[in-house]
């Protein structure tokens, strides 16, 4: 019999690909959070110790500041992926700003 998937894993395609056993291992560490357009998840220099998995209807952009004061959008992550400590495993300060 297949284990029921936790509702905390619903809405993100990356998390939804986990089999039931792997989903159960991670589900206890997942916290659903409401975010709004313009919310900043982390800024340059922050220690990023968590991973954010965007869910249905949420897109996060990674914006990197340039030396001349301008900035450039380097990545857009939707419900297909994750952003944050997944890259540095929480050991490096952020080089960009993640904005919903």
Report on this structure.
The protein is an alpha+beta fold. It has one domain (7-99): Jelly Rolls (Sandwich). 16% of the residues lie in helices and 23% in strands. It is built from three helices and six strands, in the order H-H-E-E-E-E-E-H-E. The strands form two sheets. A four-stranded antiparallel sheet has the order 1-6-3-4, with no helix packed on it. The protein is globular and about 50 Å long.
Give the topology.
Layout: H1 13-16, H2 20-27, E1 40-42, E2 51-52, E3 60-65, E4 71-77, E5 83-84, H3 85-88, E6 97-99
Antiparallel strand pairs: 1-6, 2-5, 3-4, 3-6
CATH homologous superfamily identity: Jelly Rolls
What do the pLDDT scores average to?
87
Percent range for helical residues? 10-25%
Percent strand equals: 15-25%
InterPro entries: cNMP-bd_dom_sf, RmlC-like_jellyroll
Organism: Methylobacterium phyllostachyos
Protein name: Cyclic nucleotide-binding domain-containing protein
Offer a few descriptive terms:
single chain; 100 residues; alpha+beta; Jelly Rolls; two-stranded antiparallel sheet; 6 strands; 23% strand; globular; RmlC-like_jellyroll
Please provide a brief summary of the model:
It comes from Methylobacterium phyllostachyos. With 100 residues, the chain is α+β, with helices and mostly antiparallel strands.
